[in-house]
Structure formats: C-alpha cells, structure tokens
C-alpha cells in the first residue's frame, strides 16, 4: 500500500525533477544552443495546459455524470485550431509585431494603450481564473486524500484544507522561481515551457496507461470494452443541442481568451510557423487525451461502489485493482495537469496584474525620476509579480475554501470559461474591426463581467453560499426580471446556457453600439490600423530578441520622436563628450536624464519619462513595443504639426490678403488724393479766370483794372494749359508709351539751350557751368534731356532763397555715363522731404510762388528713367542739389 | 462802414477777386493767407463773417473751422467754406464741423455775394 507519505515523497521527487529540467533548459537557452527548445513539438506540448486537472480527472467524471457532453470541451479547441487557425495566426502576428505581453495588454494596446481597459481585462481574467485555480487545488488535494484514505487514514476537512494550502505554497514557490527569476523583455519563460512540455507528456502517458489498463487489463480488449460501453448508462444520456453548441463555442473561445492559453499560444510563440504544425498536432493530442475517457468512466461506474466520486476514477480504478504503480503514474499525471496550469495561469495573471495595475499605481505614487532610471523598477516589478502570483493563488484558495470543494469540477471549469470569454468581443472586434472604440470595448467588457458575475459566478459557490435561495427564486429585492438564472423572465434554460447567452449577447451589443456612436482618439485609430492590418504592417515577423536596451535602441526611439538630425546631434554631442566617435555613447544616467528632458520637449514629460524609464529599466515592455509607441507619437506629432502648418499657412494667406487689402485701400486713397489734387490744381486757375471774367463782364471798372484782370486771366489760362501738358506728359511717360527720338549732341550746347529757355541769363540769377562741357557727346533723346535741364534750372530760379542766388552746373565723365550736378546756394531741402519732392503734386515749397502743380520733378524722374539714367537729390551740399546720371548712349532696352 | 468779412485764402488771384466782389457790395474785407496763424487773426479782431479756404499752407481749413467752433469768442461767427477739391465728402465734413455754407471753386461772383449777404444778415 502506498501511504500518503510515499505519495508526498514521490511528488517532491517529481517536482525536483521538473526543477532540474527547467534549470537545464534555461541554462541551455542562455547559452543560445537550444534551438530545439523553439521546436513546434515543444510549442504543441505547451498548448496542452489547456488540459488541466479538470480535463485529466474531470472529463471522466463529466462523462460519468453527463454522458458524451464532455466531448465538447475537446471539440471547441479542435475546431478552433483546424478551422479558425487564421484568427490565431492574426493574434500571433499582432502579438509579435506589437510585443504583446498578455491578453490585457492586447486589448489595452489595441484601444489606444488604454490603462482602464487593461485594468478591466485584468480584473475579468483574475476573477474568471480564480475558480479554475481553486479547481486545480481541489483536484490535487482530493488526489492526495485518495491515497491517504487508501492508506487507511481518515482525512478530515481540516486535513484537506491544510493540504490545499500546502499545495498552493508549493506552487507559489515553483512559479516564483521559474516565472519571476528574471525579467525577460518579452515575457518568455524557457524553464517553465520545458517543464510544462514534460508534464504534458507525463499526463498523456498517464491517461493512456490508465486507459490501456482499463481496456485491455480490465475489460479484456476493445471489443469487450465496446460491449460494456453499450451496456452502460453513458450512451443513454439525453444530449441538449443548445448546451452542445454553447459548450463548443465556449471551449473554442476559451482557447483564445484564457490568459494562460494566450500566454502559451501568443506570448511564448517562438515562430509563427509552429502554429501550422500545432493546428493538427494539438487536436491530435486532445484526441488522445479524450480517447479513454468513456472506457474509464464506464469501468469506474461498474467497478466502484455507488457514490464514489467519478472525478477521481482515473486514480481510484487502478487503486481498486491494486495497481499501485499505475495509480502513482496517474497521480503524477493529474498533478502535472494541475501544476502546469496553475504555473502558467499565475504567471500570465501576475504579468497582467503587475503591468496594468501595480506598476501604473507605483509610478503614479512615486514620480521620482531617479528610481526609474536607476533600475529600481526592476525590483518593483519582480516584487509585484511575486505578490501577484501569491495573490492569485490566495484567491484560488479562498474560492476553494468558500465553495467547500463540493461542486463538481466540470461545472466550476465552465463557469471559469464563461468569464474568460467575456473578453472575446473586445478582442476579436479590436483585431478585425477598425471602427471598434475604447469606450465600446469598455462598455461590452463591463456589461459582460456584470452579467457573468450575477448569472454564473456568484451562483457557482453553491446553493445559498453567496446568493440566497430567495434571490435565486425571486430576484434581488423582488425584481423577478433580474433573477440570476432567469434573466428578463427567460426561464427553462440551462443555467450555463442562460448565463452565457445573456452575457455574450449584452456584451457584444454594448460593444458594437457604443463603438458605433463614439469616435476613436488618434492613438486608437493608429493602433486600430496596426492591429487590423497587421499583415500589411509587418511583412516578416521579427525574431524575438533578448538584448537589453542600448544606445542604439535609444537613438532609434529618439529619432522617431524628434527627427533624425536633432536626435543624432544629441547623441553625437554626448559621444564626443565621452571621447568617442560616432553616434553611440555609453548610456550613462546623466545622458539618459538629458535625453529624457529633450524627449519631453516633443512628447511631454510624462510620456518621455515612461518611455525612457521602460527602455532603460526594462519593465517588461519590449524595445519594439516602445518603438511602436514612438512611431505613433511621431505620427501624431506629424499630424499635429501638419495641422499647425496648415493654420500657419492660413494665417499667412490671411495676412497676404490683409496686406493686399491694405495696399488696395492705400491705392484707392492715393487715387482719391491724386484726383483731388488734380481737381484742386485745375479748379484754382479756373476760379480766377471765371471770377475775373465775371468782373470784366460786369463793366463798371477802370481801364487799369481791366488790363490787370485780363492779365491775370491770361496767366491763369497759361498755367492751366501747362498743367494739362504736364499731366499728359507724365501720364505718357508713366505708361511707357512715350516716343523717344534718339540723336547725338553735346552737353554744353544742350545746357545752353536749357538755360536760355528757363529764363535766360542776365538777371540777378547767376548760372555757372563747367568750361569743358563742349567735348561731352551724348546720344539720347536730346529734347527730353533739355526738358529735364530746364526743369531743374527753373526750379532753382524759383526756389533758391539766397541773397545772391547762384546755380552751379558741373559735369563728370563716369565711364559709360555722365554725372551732371545742379547745385544752388539756397537753404536746400529738409532731409525728410528729399524723397518726397519726386512725388506728384509734392510742392514742398510754397506752391503759389512756384506757380507749378508739383509735377516737374516727377516728370524729370520719369524722363531720366526712360533714358536709362536717373535723377536724385544730392545730400550733403550747402544748397539744393540734384544729380542727373545720364548714359552716354541710351541703352536699347529703355 | 460795412460789416467785416475775413477772407482766409492762399491763392493771391482768388483773394483779389473775392475782395473786389465783396468790397463792391459794401463790406469791409480783411484778408489772411496762412492757415497756421488764422485763429490768432480771428480772435484778435473778430469779423462778422469768415470765408475759409480748405487747402491752406500750414493748417487745413477744416482744422481751423473746428477751432472756431470750439472757441467761445468765435463759435457764432458765420463761416463759408471754399474748396477746389469738389468732393462730396468734403462738403459733408464741412457741414458736420459747423460750416454755414460750403462753396466749390470755381464759383459765380453773384453766388458769393448773395451768400455773404444772407449769412451776415441772419
């Protein structure tokens, strides 16, 4: 007889063996020569954590209680692996492209890195996994009890509880050692994976061995076995179609949604191609696991006394037959099933709890930059993981104690599955539907969680444990429509089908409706595109890397955030400061601090802090993941800078329009002023003419007055004509329609002509011109040039206010042109007016005295420009001084 | 001795013409040619009526009109504005500033005479 102590010793040896295998695998992995660790076989075997103690022991119990319905638990994943592998492939691709660490990370990441969604999914996962972990503790405890009882010991509840606690502690130790020994950037655990692969083999061999023993050893061969089965009650069970469909859906969806399945399927996946092999290898494994379930159940029902727990037939049938060794193997199989599930589940859940709840809270509580940069965060995360593992196991233990271990294993498992699949709408919606939004996902998840808690989880503690019988029968506070097992008055459904139907229906509806009426944020949009179109975004799945963040990673990230030039400049400067060449300096704390400050300028302090902190501290988010974040940030920055540019452009346009408008207004004002000036200049002489002609017509005046007044009329008429001539002349010159008659002459003669026309010599006004002007020949429009000279001389004559006015005219040969200066000895023109004088109607001096309209110099300037020269006021002379620049030969293009 | 008319105008020929017309009609005509000192001239020897040109050297006729209307001594003196610019908005501005009449150059002598008569008698 195997005593309980022998079993415990065996268990400890087995655990020690697993330790050895795990250590060995990790060492091989570290040395890098463990390619076989990444084989599709290992991947497939690791998927076998789907088959927990529930499957190992529970399937037989299920068959004994409900007939063939247990098959659905295998059919769901089989259909999923074979028919819906493309969903898995997309998840695996996204998981690798986005460096997803858990199912909570997937959902949160998809919906714009939403912290709240991460928390919701984590909570759902933890709550849903709790019954399942309790289930494992229960099965291990019960199997211990079987040996204890067969050894003659009578176990009390206290013993069971103590055993469960010790099992939990043992699992905690093992999981902590292999699950949180180090912080791998991509959450892969070689030791654990190898251990569960070994356990997968052990449990398959154990179950097959028991099956073979039952068929050939007890029944006497397959034919006899079939005979027994035909005679048994199992085939007589009514099968409920609704339950079948629900259960197939449930177990298929659970393959995607269970945190531990996501962990092995997506996170621990080393190569996407392994999925192709697993898609037939895993169903084969499931088939083998289910092959002997019915025979064992039938034989167990036949052999064992009525009232024996069918959940333990796998163990009790060999014991009954005295096969101690087989029973031991069977025990190890069940033990393996339980431990591997608990280990992976707690690791997955701990990752979620620490990444989505503990670390964000810790970061928000301790804003000190020092901790993150110095690597402190690694300890925090490891501690968070260990505490999370302890917490998850503790919750399982509490559930086990609360439920009293009284409920059938299968029922608990299904409740757990239904909880986990609440994540399905948000996950699939997020992966296949770009319109899905964060609010939609949160709504669906919360509705699903609530309905599941109410209709399935709370009632699962057993009759009246948490929910009173009255509530079950009449609803809370007498609200019949809210009865946990007859929601909205739907009665008669199987409680599981009922709960699953309502929770999934309301969950999906909430998700879709809220998604349709809300708008995704830019980050959600970006993430949505990257998830839904993952195959376009990641042509080749990158290999996993375990390299820690170096200067290169920081540079890549920095470049994506602030652009290549700036980032390279920062890195190069630091490298030079450290006495190195190139762009890759040592990643020193001071440099990191500097970089973070610079990054903060682009993405804000909090984001920069988190990114750099995670990259340096390695908080479990991979380098590529951060780079993806940086990519998004860069895109968002680019988007916003495009918007800025656009608004700047608009502002520029508006400014240009304003300027144009101002110019037009100014032009219109100028035009008004010009017309008003012309009007004034024309009307003034007209007024005199009209008024004096009226007076003359009236008669009654003396001869002297008559003569004087007709003189005024004459002068004003001439002034008027001159004004009109000037206006026409200027208009022609300005429009460029002027006809120029180019001839050759010499400057001396032209000046003499001008002096003569401007009033001649002889009076008080003295004109002195340089003696050698006669030699200076010029080819231009001579008449126009003389017009300019006349104007300048006449001006001097009119405006020079010296006692003995004098105008000096001098000429200098300046290569291709002559410089002709007209300088008088008057008081000159004030500097502020020196530019003004060339404008039309700008009579700086007293206009009435000059008798002109102020068009003379404007005309001069136009003429000189036509002749290819210029006229300018000469500053710094004692009197009024003009310089005429005249080309010796008029250029052809003027 | 007829009532005094002050004529503020910078064009000598127009000054002479208007002076002749008004003297012939029995008014005593004083003339002033500069905008800047026009106010001083008015306050120092307030006339019974003012004829004011708009475009004056130194100070515009509109500015002078504004000052006239703000000054206790001169605010009630009738003012006839003269302008050669002939724009409607000048007329509006003049009337708003308190001119009694606005006349565009060139004018008919009879008009000037009649308006001066009516403004002084009023």
Automatic annotation (TrEMBL), chain A:
Q: Name one GO cellular component term.
A: membrane
Start and end of every Histidine kinase domain? 677-890
Asked whether the keyword Kinase is assigned, the reply is: yes
Residue ranges the record marks as coiled coil? 640-667
Sorted alphabetically, which keywords does the UniProt record give?
A: Coiled coil, Kinase, Membrane, Phosphoprotein, Transferase, Transmembrane, Transmembrane helix, Two-component regulatory system
Top-level EC class as recorded in UniProt: transferase
Q: How does it sit in the membrane?
A: Multi-pass membrane protein
Q: Which reaction does it catalyse?
A: ATP + protein L-histidine = ADP + protein N-phospho-L-histidine
Give the CDD domains listed for this entry.
HATPase, HisKA, SLC5sbd
Report the InterPro entries cross-referenced here: HATPase_C_sf (IPR036890), HATPase_dom (IPR003594), His_kinase_dom (IPR005467), HisK_dim/P_dom (IPR003661), HisK_dim/P_sf (IPR036097), Na/Glc_symporter_sf (IPR038377), Na/solute_symporter (IPR001734), Sensor_HK_Regulatory (IPR050736)
Top-rank taxon of the source lineage equals Bacteria
Record keywords: Transferase included? yes
Q: Where in the cell is it found?
A: Membrane
Give the Enzyme Commission number: 2.7.13.3
Which GO molecular-function terms appear in the entry?
Answer: phosphorelay sensor kinase activity; transmembrane transporter activity
Listed transmembrane segments: 6-25, 41-64, 70-88, 117-135, 163-180, 192-219, 244-262, 274-301, 338-363, 383-402, 408-432, 439-457
Q: Which family is this protein grouped under?
A: Belongs to the sodium:solute symporter (SSF) (TC 2.A.21) family.
- The protein in question is named histidine kinase
| Gene source species | Yoonia tamlensis
Automatic annotation (TrEMBL), chain B:
4-aspartylphosphate modifications at: 53
Note the Pfam families from the entry.
Response_reg
Question: What CDD domains does UniProt report for this protein, alphabetically?
Answer: REC_OmpR
Q: Tell me where in this chain the Response regulatory domain is found.
A: 4-120
Provide the alphabetized UniProt keywords: DNA-binding, Phosphoprotein, Transcription, Transcription regulation, Two-component regulatory system
- Gene Ontology BP, a term: phosphorelay signal transduction system
Q: Which GO terms describe its molecular function?
A: DNA binding
In Swiss-Prot or TrEMBL terms, this protein is called Response regulator receiver domain-containing protein
Q: Which organism is it from?
A: Yoonia tamlensis
Q: What is the lineage of its organism?
A: Bacteria, Pseudomonadati, Pseudomonadota, Alphaproteobacteria, Rhodobacterales
């Amino acid at each position: 007889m195997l005593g309980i102590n022998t079993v415990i010793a065996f268990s400890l040896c087995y655990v020690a063996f697993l330790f050895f295998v795990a250590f060995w695998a990790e060492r091989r992995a570290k040395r890098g020569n463990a390619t076989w660790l990444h084989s599709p076989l290992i991947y497939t075997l690791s998927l076998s954590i789907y088959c927990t103690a529930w499957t190992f022991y529970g399937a037989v119990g299920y068959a004994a209680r409900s007939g063939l319905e247990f098959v659905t638990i295998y059919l769901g994943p089989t259909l999923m692996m074979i028919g819906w592998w493309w969903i898995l492939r997309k998840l695996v691709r996204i998981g690798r492209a986005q460096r997803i660490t858990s199912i909570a990370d997937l959902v949160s990441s998809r919906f714009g890195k939403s912290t709240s969604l991460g928390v919701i999914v984590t909570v759902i996962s933890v709550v849903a996994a709790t019954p399942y972990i309790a289930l494992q503790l229960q099965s291990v405890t019960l199997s211990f009890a079987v040996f204890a009882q067969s050894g003659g010991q009578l176990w009390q509840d206290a013993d069971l509880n103590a055993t469960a606690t010790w099992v939990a502690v043992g699992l905690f130790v093992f999981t902590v050692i292999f699950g949180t020994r180090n912080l791998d950037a991509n959450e892969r655990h070689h030791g654990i994976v190898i251990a569960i692969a070994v356990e997968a083999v052990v449990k398959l061999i154990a179950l097959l061995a028991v099956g073979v023993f039952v068929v050939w050893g007890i029944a006497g061969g397959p034919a006899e076995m079939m005979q027994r089965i035909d005679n048994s009650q199992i085939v007589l069970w009514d099968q409920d179609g609704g339950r079948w469909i629900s259960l197939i859906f449930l177990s298929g969806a659970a393959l995607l949604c269970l945190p531990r399945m996501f962990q092995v399927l997506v996170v621990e996946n080393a190569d996407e191609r392994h999925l192709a092999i697993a898609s037939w290898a895993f169903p084969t494994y499931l088939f083998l696991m289910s092959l002997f379930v019915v025979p064992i159940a039938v034989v167990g029902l036949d052999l064992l006394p009525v009232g024996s727990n069918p959940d333990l037939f796998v163990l009790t049938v060999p014991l009954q037959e005295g096969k101690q060794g087989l029973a031991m193997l069977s025990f190890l199989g069940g033990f393996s099933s339980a431990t591997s599930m608990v280990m992976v589940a707690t690791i997955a859940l701990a990752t979620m709890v620490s990444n989505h709840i503990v670390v964000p809270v810790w970061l928000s509580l301790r804003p000190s930059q020092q901790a993150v940069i110095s690597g402190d965060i690694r300890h925090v995360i490891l501690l968070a993981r260990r505490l999370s593992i302890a917490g998850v196991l503790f919750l399982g233990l509490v559930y086990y104690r609360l439920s009293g271990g009284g409920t059938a294993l299968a029922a608990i498992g299904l409740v757990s599955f239904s909880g986990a699949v609440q994540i399905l709408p948000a996950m699939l919606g997020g992966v296949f539907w770009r319109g899905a939004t964060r609010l939609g996902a949160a709504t669906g998840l919360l509705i699903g969680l609530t309905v599941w808690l109410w209709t399935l989880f709370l009632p699962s503690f057993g009759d009246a444990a948490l929910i009173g019988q009255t509530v079950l029968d009449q609803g809370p506070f007498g609200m019949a429509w809210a009865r946990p097992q007859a929601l909205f008055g739907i009665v008669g459904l199987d409680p599981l089908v009922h709960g699953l139907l309502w929770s999934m229906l309301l969950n999906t509806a909430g998700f879709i409706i809220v998604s349709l009426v809300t708008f995704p944020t830019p980050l959600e949009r970006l993430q949505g595109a990257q998830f839904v179109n993952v195959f376009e975004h990641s042509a080749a799945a990158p290999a996993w890397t375990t390299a820690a963040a170096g200067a290169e990673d920081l540079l890549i990230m920095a470049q994506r955030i602030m652009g290549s030039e700036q980032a390279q400049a920062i890195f190069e400067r630091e490298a030079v400061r450290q006495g190195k060449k190139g762009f890759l300096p040592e990643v020193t704390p001071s440099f990191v601090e500097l970089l973070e400050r610079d990054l903060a300028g682009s993405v804000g302090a909090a984001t920069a802090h988190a990114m750099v902190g995670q990259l340096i501290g390695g908080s479990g988010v991979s380098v590529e993941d951060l780079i993806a974040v940086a990519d998004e940030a860069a895109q968002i920055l680019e988007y916003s800078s495009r918007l800025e540019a656009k608004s700047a452009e608009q502002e520029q346009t508006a400014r240009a329009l304003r300027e144009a408008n101002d110019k037009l207004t100014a032009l219109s004002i100028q035009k008004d002023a010009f017309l008003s000036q012309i009007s004034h200049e024309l009307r003034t002489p007209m007024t005199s003419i009209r008024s004096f002609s009226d007076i003359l017509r009236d008669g009654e005046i003396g001869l002297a007055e008559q003569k004087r007044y007709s003189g005024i009329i004459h002068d004003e008429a001439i002034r008027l004509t001159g004004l009109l001539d000037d206006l026409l002349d200027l208009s022609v010159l300005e429009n460029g329609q002027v006809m120029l008659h180019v001839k050759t002459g010499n400057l001396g003669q032209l000046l003499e002509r001008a002096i003569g026309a401007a009033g001649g010599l002889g009076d008080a006004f003295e004109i002195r011109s340089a003696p050698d002007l006669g030699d200076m020949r010029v080819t231009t429009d001579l008449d126009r040039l003389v017009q300019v000279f006349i104007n300048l001389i006449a001006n001097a004559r009119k405006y020079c206010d010296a006692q003995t006015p004098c105008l000096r005219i001098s000429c200098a040969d300046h290569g291709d042109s002559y410089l002709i200066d007209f300088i008088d000895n008057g008081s000159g023109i004030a500097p502020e007016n020196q530019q003004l004088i060339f404008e039309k109607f700008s009579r700086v001096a007293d206009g009435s005295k000059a008798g002109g309209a102020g068009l003379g110099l404007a005309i001069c300037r136009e003429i000189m420009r036509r002749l290819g020269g210029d006229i300018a006021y000469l500053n710094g002379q004692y009197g009024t001084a003009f310089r005429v620049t005249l080309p010796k030969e008029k250029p052809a293009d003027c | 001795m007829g009532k005094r008319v002050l004529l503020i105008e910078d064009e000598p020929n127009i000054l002479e013409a208007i002076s002749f017309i008004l003297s012939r009609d029995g008014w005593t005509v004083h003339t002033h040619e500069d905008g800047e000192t026009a106010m001083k001239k008015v306050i120092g020897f307030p006339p019974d009526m003012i004829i004011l040109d708009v475009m004056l050297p130194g100070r515009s006729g509109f500015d002078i009109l504004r000052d006239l209307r703000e000054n206790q001594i001169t605010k009630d003196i009738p003012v006839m504005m003269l302008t050669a610019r002939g724009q409607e908005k000048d007329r509006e501005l003049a009337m708003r500033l308190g001119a009694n009449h606005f006349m565009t150059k060139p004018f008919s002598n009879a008009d000037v005479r009649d308006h001066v008569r009516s403004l002084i008698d009023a």
